[in-house]
Amino acid sequence: MDRRESLKALAVGSLSVGALLTGCDDKKATEAEKKGAAGAEAYGRTPEEKERDARLMAEQFFTDGEMKTITVLTAIIIPADDRSGSAVDAGVPDFIEFIVKDQPRYQLPLRGGLRWLDVHCLKQYNKTFVECNTAQQTAVIDQIAYPEKATPETSQGVSFFNLMRNLTATGFFTSKIGIKDLGYVGNTPNEWNGVPDDVLQQYGLAYDAKTLEQCLKIEDRGKLMTWED
Amino acid sequence: MAFEIKQQGPVYDVCIVGSGAGGGMAAKILSEAGLKIALLEAGPKYDPADPEQATQLKWSWQSPRRGATTTRPFGDFDAAYGGWEIEGEPYTTKNGTQFDWFRSRMLGGRTNHWGRISLRFGPRDFKHKSYDGLGDDWPISYDDVKPYYDRVDKMIGVFGTKEGIFNEPDGYFLPPPKPRLHELMIKKAGDSLGIPVIPARLSILTRSVNKDRAPCFYCSQCNRGCTVYADFSSSSCLVKPAMKTGHVDLYTNAMAREVLTDKTGKATGVSYVDRLDLQEYQVKAKVIVLAASACESARLLLNSKSPRFPNGLANGSGVVGKYLHDSTGASRGAFLPQLMDRKRYNEDGVGGMHVYIPWWGDNKKLDFARGYHIELGGGMPMPSYGFGFGIEHLNGKYPGPDGKPKAAGGYGASLKNDYRRFYGATIGFAGRGECIAREDNYCEIDPQVVDKYGIPVLRFNYTWSDHEIKQAKHMQDTFEELIHELGGVPLGSKPGADTMYGLETPGRIIHEVGTTRMGDDPKRSVLNKYNQAHEVKNLFVVDGGAFVSQADKNPTWTIMALAIRASEYIVDELKKQNI
After folding, report:
1. Which residues in chain A (5-64) have CB-CB distances under 8 A to chain B?
2. Strand pairing partners for B8?
3. What is the full DSSP assignment across A117-144?
């Protein structure tokens, strides 16, 4: 099942996307191929853009091992809470796999950063990051997640984690789950008639008489405009 | 390999090259006058309502790159095809200078993505040399153009308010939308600083102007093209009605190569290469109208050499390509702590700002010559690629919900909540100003380089002068003044002298004009005051190339007003058999 279908499933509310994604991990390459062959999702692409999307979808950059680490990291950065699911539930690892093919400048810092993280863990615990237990993972992340508190020895890890944080946040809050979580309620036909009264009141603002006089009366929206010469 | 040059169609009355603001308007006016038109467009057909091409109301997650700018410079959902770099169509620069040239190969050209900011030039904008001694005056005045601005207003529709500001002429406006929350705050700050914040003037239909176009439904996505044609683009509002006359043959994917001339020096047609079948074609016409964009039209003229026109067509003056100038641009973002944890509601509004800041300064009291306007951003937009980047620079500076300080960066539930708290609390200011036209800012033909069609390419030479650099400094100072008055915190560090105060690379604002400027003196200008070439009576240029000077305004409204004027002059001259 591809991500599009899983999101559909979420909308129906029958299954959690997390379960679906985890269950489908092993079929990822073939799914990518299928998606590529079927053409990218319709979002107004030119023929050249469609071709490029399909090509990128069919490629694989990260190894399975790297994807495992990315999945654990994104879940640590944005976990599920009482309002919404985690970055993994929102398909962020797949987004990161795509974006590094779309913007290859990310490839080296991410691949190298993942390696840095594993070597850092090996030195401390004689284990890779995903092999570490939760307490060990937390201890390592705490060393690189706070740029202003981190020691100079971990500066490369801090840069890597900043990048992971950025990509995870962008991937999450541009997903269906994330946009809903954020409370964005636009992207739909509507009639803008100004800031709600309670919000104006909260900030001690008001539309003055001149503004109200000049601005569109929303009931006139459907009337053809004419001018007196 | 044998080449055959095929002739397309009959001998037309007019062949127009380019379907953007100028070409679209010429096609509409000339076809409605009953003339037979060939309209050449270098890109494909485009209709924002075509489901194959539409991007309006798509969600960020429908793009695998979440709307990032990888393939389209203004993001995946932006309507404009093309950009600053087009594969196989290079351009070059010289003397270590920079110029970025944005091209949009598609029906309607660059009108498909612009901000719809539709400002008339004012009386002073046409006569700036008389005012400050710099550059040149236009051969026409505001009064000459005013009737055409009036017609553009009523034909296309633009919202705004009558303000009575001398150099910001009022027009026939539609009612503007009410300001958003951050716009009310900026207006309040402007009021106390003596900086005017007035309703924006955008060509978006808050009410319809005709039955072919529906009023705006407030999705804020004009740059994606509107499926109900509530915003202006040349393809929707000009080419479409022109095609309905039945007098227009549209040639898409037709990349113009040269303007053809006969022995008497008259233009006879245009040769082009079809970008799909790569065959060579010619279209013959009695009148040639270039509207390929300022630089592309200049390139066409410079590439149209003949024994009679060894410098390029209509270029006895040597002025073609010179006096190139783009608007200045500099910007700054800010964080408004009072907007943290704000209540959610649909604040999309129209595509762009509901209020803006027109130029308010008195240059006689300043150390630079020309003004700028300020465009505003902010609100609660749909998150897309880039959302949340750099939170580690922000979330350590403000206390958490419990009032206690937090360490910058972080992870987990607390970080997740920070994104929610900071959403909708940033605003942006962008200054767009006038650059003084200079002969030594120019484009010319690169003697060594051709594009993939074998057409010699442009080479640019462009520098900013002290006037533009000092203007950018003034912008930055003003942005900070406004931000402080708002109780906000400027983002990043203030651009200083080392970066020319954040002044954008020339070409980046996509307002480049002046390359075939008009004037009364054929030695110092390419066109006369009717956009007609001094040296070739049946050749016209109706894009931004005709401008003598850019104002601190966006050029589109003036391009269209002058295109109506030139088109009606063509109809008259044809009737009188003068051309």
Report:
1. 7, 40-44, 46, 49, 52-53, 56-57
2. B283
3. HHHHHHHHHSS-TTTS-HHHHHHHHHHH
The C-alpha atoms of residue B529 and residue A207 are separated, in whole angstroms, by: 45
CB-CB contact of A190 with B346 (8 Å):
yes
Tokens at B425, concatenated: 């609390």
Those residues whose C-beta lies under 8 Å from the C-beta of residue B194, and which sit 6 or more positions away, are B360
- The helix/strand/coil state of B412 is helix
Per the rule left: phi > 0, alpha: psi between -120 and 50, beta: everything else, B398 is beta
Check if A222 contacts B (Cβ < 8 Å): yes
Interface ipTM: 0.94
Q: Tens digit of pLDDT for each residue in A82-141?
A: 999 999 999 999 999 999 999 999 999 999 999 999 999 999 999 999 999 999 999 999
Q: What are phi and psi of B536, to 5 degrees?
A: -135, 105
The predicted-structure confidence for B94-108, as pLDDT tens digits, reads as follows: 999 999 999 999 999
Q: Which of B287, B286, B289, B283 is nearest to B271 (CA)?
A: B283
DSSP assignment string, B65-129: TTT-SSSSTT-TT-S---BS--TT---EE-TT------B--STTGGGGTS--B--PPPGGGG-HH
Phi-psi region of B536 (alpha: psi -120 to 50; beta: other; left: phi over 0): beta
Judge residue B177's burial from the number of C-beta atoms within 10 Å of its C-beta, 0-12 exposed, 13-18 middle, 19 or more buried: buried
| DSSP-assigned states of every residue in A38-68 | H-S--SS--HHHHHHHHHHHH---S-HHHHH
B406 touches A: beta carbon within 8 Å? no
Q: Which two tokens stand for residue B423?
A: 């959403």
Q: Identify the pLDDT of residue A20.
A: 34
Are the Cβ atoms of A192 and B350 closer than 8 angstroms? yes
CB A44 within 8 A of CB B55: yes
Inter-CA distances, B535 with A50, B49, B559, Å: 46, 42, 22
B155 contacts B212 by C-beta, under 8 angstroms: no
- Give B235's DSSP letter: I
How far is it, in rounded angstroms, from Cα B401 to Cα A20?
34
* pTM for the full predicted model: 0.93
